[in-house]
Amino acid sequence: MASGSSASIGIIDLILSEHKYMRDEYEHFKSVDDEAQLDSRVRKWIAYISLHGHKEEIAFYPNVEAHLKDEKKGGHHLIEHGIKEHRELETELKKLSEESNVTWKQIRKAVAKLMHHLDEEEADILAPLRTKLDQQVQLELARQFIHAGQLASEKPHPELSKDPERAPVENINVGVVEKQ
Ligand SMILES: [Fe+2]
Ligand SMILES: [Fe+2]
């Protein structure tokens, strides 16, 4: 079921490590001269980012909303905003994935949406949660997040619901069909 890392890393550090991978991959793209190699790495990157967002919508956002309730903007607002940004990012990732050969113009468009979302999620959701979730809860949420990888889609789906109540189920329905 869950990978070996599930027992030792909490949800905040797990999500941050996945964000780091997304940023590092983009930095790496800049040094890839071979077009076919760049194309292949960008397509893996699109799948990784799509899966990450879908895992958050299935197993992270719904579980932490209540812990963000006393924040200035309110937990529901923060989660709703996060999902809206996922859809905007997925719109650009989908365009990129539909190019026969990926272009830097479209990579940069996707990166602009990605960086904005990662920075905001880290500041508004992950940082406040670190002090609110005890270590046992963080480990359990990490386990659920990893497990959601078996349900979630690896493709960008800008058409999925922006509604925090509907998005988790739609994500699972789409992912399960793709994995059949
Ligand atoms: Fe994230
Ligand atoms: Fe996110």
From TrEMBL:
Residues 150-180 are annotated as: Disordered. Signal peptide: none annotated. Residues 154-168 have a biased composition (Basic and acidic residues). It comes from the Eukaryota. Residues 11-126 form the Hemerythrin-like domain. This is Hemerythrin-like domain-containing protein.
